[in-house]
Every structure is written in C-alpha cells, then in structure tokens.
Design a protein that fits this description.
192 residues; alpha+beta; three-stranded antiparallel β-sheet; 7 helices; 38% helix
C-alpha cells in the first residue's frame, strides 16, 4: 500500500495527470484534463470567427492519455492555428464596423498611408482620418485578408453612412454614446 501511495504522489508531484490528447485528423493539437475544455474551446472558435466553423474531416477528437502540464482552460488558439482556411490577421475597425483584414502591421501601415495620400486635397499640408481607427489581432477566413491593391481601392471608395437617431424620453448623452460606442465629445461634435 505504501508503494502505491508513493507512486501516486510521485505521479502527481511530477505534473502528470490523467487527461486527453486532442487531435485534428492525425495532427496533435494540445493536452487537456477534461472534455469540457474542448467543448468550450470549440464554441470559442465559432465566437472568434463569427460563424459556425465546418471542420469537415478535421473535427477535433480526444484520446485518453497520461498528460504532463496540460494546456490551460482554453485551447481555442491551438485549434484556430490548425485550421487550413483560417489565418491570424490584423483587423481594421472603424466605429465598430470591421472594414479590412491585413496579413501584418507593415501592410496595414502601407495601405493606410496610401489611402491618406489618395484622399488628400490638392495643396493640403496634411491629411488625417476623421474617425478613430482600431486594430486588433483576430483569426479570419484566409480569403478575407485583402492584398494591398484591393485594400487601397476598397478603403478609398468606402464611405460611412451617417447614422441618425431620434432621442427617446429617457435618453441621455451617456446612454446614446454607450449604445453606439462613441465618445461623448465625438457625439456632441457630430451633432452641433
């Protein structure tokens, strides 16, 4: 009995656990301690992509295993990195609307500089974007990542339609600015 207890303590003391190895097809993805991690991570994949992903023949599966140092509570990024038709990109968002996805920061910078140059009025000293640009790293369909020429053409022709909103009885500047994710100052500037 002492040997068994010593063996169990040594097993756990060295970081080993009973768990699962996650595979997509024949490719190893990660080690987890329970199946719930896989289920929640697959839901997170759909949430991250904004649509229900069709895994076809690469649906994640688990195999019972002894694991050392299992992955954290989420293997979402591990799964996303193994998908053939999905890539991590730099996504440009303006006023909450996703406009374009770029392969890297340099390409995004080049495109935005060219958009500014194309939009500058003749003889103007400087040009800047009227709205605040937001960038974030995100996984998207690989086909959604724009090449430089297409991105410049799209962004120079893109116009944001002004939104109108009719105030209701209990509306305040705070509630409207939160609803449309716009600063109070910007809301006031646009409505003077």
């Amino acid at each position: 009995g002492v040997c068994i207890i010593s063996g169990v303590l040594l097993f756990y003391g060295l970081g080993f656990r009973f768990g699962y190895h996650v595979y997509m097809g024949d490719e190893y993805v990660a080690s987890i301690t329970d199946r719930a991690t896989l289920v929640s991570s697959m839901k997170n994949v759909n949430r991250e992509l904004g649509y229900k992903y069709d895994y076809r023949d690469k649906k994640p599966t688990v195999k019972l295993a002894i694991v050392k140092n299992p992955s954290s509570d989420s293997i979402t990024n591990d799964i996303l990195s193994k998908l053939d038709d999905v890539s991590e990109s730099l996504v440009l968002t303006v006023n909450g609307t996703q406009l374009a996805a770029f392969s890297d920061t340099n390409e995004a910078t080049d495109v935005l500089n060219e958009v500014l140059e194309n939009s500058a009025a003749p003889g103007s000293a400087s040009t800047e974007f009227a709205d605040e640009l937001e960038f974030r790293r995100q996984y998207v369909r690989t086909t959604g990542i724009l090449d430089k020429e297409t991105a410049v053409e799209y962004l120079t022709s893109y116009e944001i339609e002004p939104k109108t909103y009719t105030l209701r009885d209990k509306d305040t500047i705070d509630t409207v600015s939160k609803k449309y994710r716009i600063s109070k100052d910007e809301l006031l500037n646009r409505n003077t």
